[in-house]
Amino acid sequence: MSLDFEVLLDDLFENIASNDFGEAEKPVICNKKVLSLINDFEDGKWRAKKFHNFIWDNIKETALSKSERDCLVGQESSMLEAAAQNLRLTDKEGDIGKGSELAEIVLYGIMKHHYKALSVVPKIFYKQNPQDNAKGADSVHIVLDEHDDFTLWFGEAKFYTSIEDARLAEIVTSVGNSLGTEKLRKENAIITNLSDIENLGISDEVKSKIRDCLSHKKSIDQLKPKINIPILLLHECAITREAKELTPEYKQKIIAYHKARATAYFNKQIKSLAKEVTKYADIKFHIILFPVPQKSPIVNKFVANVAHYKGV
């Protein structure tokens, strides 16, 4: 299965904001990338069904363990019902994290299909109970390279009605908190203690490298060059709400808007975290922007689907 959403931007942040920074700041901008994705239109409307199908096609990766998924191979309906049992229904009660679980699933799908990542910790599955938020990072993935080495991806996923400056400041705070040494040690311990890592289809040599690198005996500073932070901002967008088709003009408007928002976000992050996070320049950050016409109908449809599969 491919990502099936159009990529408008997939570029280094330094290429987008090169005029805003000097040579002295190059180390803290060259470790950042911007990814902009869009859905398309049909009959003059944004393709909501296609978007929801993407969610439900990828839900099992984050809501079920590898052993559960293996037991239900070929039983798609049963797999969806099992996945739904680990999802919250608090969204329909208007909690402050409305749509957060939906965003986590979208991020898992993007990680799998765009970055070719392996899901290590199905976060929704490993919540203490279905009414709790997943602890720690919203997603944990491993990306392998051609040299039998790996990078570690700790994701943040948000679904906002606005990505103006106040919201961006919240995300910077969340990302900074996730990079604390004890937080990273806890994530590493979860990865190494789970049986899922044994079922990823990777060589024993790579598994040994992963376990050795994530050992509690190792300094977190040594791990920083392997860490990537993908930050998904699924967001309500007036440009998308007003569009009727996938025109060049629409695409250019989204590109310009996403470049401006990525620049605003990374400016805030650099100012806040560059001197606070040890080896900040070694960590790679990816901002992923995905516009939708309106948040509430998407969340409501998702909640209705969850209720259906839960049988409530």
The first-to-last residue Cα distance is 31 Å
> How is the main sheet built?
7 strands, mixed
The amount of helix comes to: 40-55%
* Gyration radius over CA: 19 Å
The order of strands across the largest sheet is 1-2-9-8-7-6-5
Structural class: alpha/beta
Number of strands: 9
Tally the helices: what do you get? 13
The helix/strand series, from N terminus to C terminus, equals: EHHEEEHHHHEEEHHHHEHHEH
Low-confidence stretches: 91-96, 128-134
Anisotropy-based shape: globular
The percentage of residues in β strands lies in 15-25%
How many domains in all? 1
**Overall mean pLDDT score?**
83
Please write out the topology.
Elements: E1 6-12, H1 13-16, H2 26-29, E2 32-38, E3 41-42, E4 45-46, H3 48-63, H4 66-71, H5 76-84, H6 100-113, E5 118-121, E6 139-144, E7 150-160, H7 165-178, H8 181-193, H9 204-213, H10 220-223, E8 227-236, H11 238-242, H12 248-273, E9 284-292, H13 295-310
Helix pairs in contact: 3-5, 3-6, 5-13, 7-12
